[in-house]
Amino acid sequence: MSLFHRSTSYRSTRDTAAGISRRQLLAGMAVSAGGFSLLGSSLARASGQTAMGPLPPLPAWHDPKASHPLLGSILVAEGNRRLSPSALVDWSQTHPLVLLGEHHDNPDHHQLERWLIEALATRKRLGGVALEMLDTTQDAALSLANRTSLAVAGLPDEELKQLLAWDARWAFTDYAPLVRSTLDSGVPLSAASLSVTQVQDVMAPGQAALALPEAVLRLQREALDEGHCGLLPPERLDAMLRGQLARDKQMAERLDALAANDSTALLVCGNGHARRDIGVPRWLEGKALSVALMPVAWDDNGQPLTRLKDYLPESAGAAPAYDLVWFTPARTPLKEACAGLREASEISAS
């Protein structure tokens, strides 16, 4: 199955309930042809790698009626070229480190993450997987799980959840399939994040932020503010900035630790962390590929946005914020999420 064989019918300009506007898209990112397939193949040959066996079938979208001109497309941010899913795997094989930036509430993102994990495992190129959803308090549990991965992978959801001491803030059903795929492959599953206590220590009053260029700090700050619907007071925003930078640095260290010769390690994280200009890649020692899983969007008049620049955030440097963008169906528009957040904030303040 190919993403390019999915329905390409256009959505009515008035039917935007399942989509989001450009403004909502760029804010939401904060929370968190033919011949181009030859590009990936040539890169794989140049690195001495050859494809081995067929790739797993691509998953169907959760919404079978999802439609948009860009849906399923994989675009190279520099040059706006297209890649096939197979070429994406080829290109991933030429990098020791790959970051997959998701929208945490998008089930299609979780399915594509699992697909890439299984595709690299099929090619015998998967070196390990680090998850933002796992933190340092789970290191001991992960050590046991990795030593007995084949047996652990077959446990019922509730038992596997308990074994991993899974954090209830993340829906286990969203990530269980890719956790199982990683354990089935026999490669290390790693915690990428700091613990809640470690983040709270960094956010405590009097702590200094990491020294970074002003453009990086400004964009990080703006992303955090937009991701929290402009509801954070300045002092809270400063604290969250320190926490975000510390988490980026920790994720980089954990991903670098999985790097090995002739294999590719993956980090699954929010797409803000996956940004080349302000996120985890700034702290990495190894060569990395940043892939944004991107919900398609419509403008305020209900017309589909079809230019890559409509989706890319302002970058702190000359290069785009991501290397590749893989377009998926959209989920809840940000304005609805912000309305719920404001309501919750008002209730807690009353």
Automatic annotation (TrEMBL):
Q: Which UniProt keywords apply?
A: Lipoprotein
Top-level taxon: Bacteria
InterPro entries membership? Cofac_haem-bd_dom (IPR007314), TAT_signal (IPR006311)
Residue ranges annotated for the Haem-binding uptake Tiki superfamily ChaN domain, each copy included = 93-284
The UniProt entry, under CDD domains, shows: ChanN-like
Q: Does the keyword Lipoprotein apply?
A: yes
- What's the name of the protein? ChaN family lipoprotein
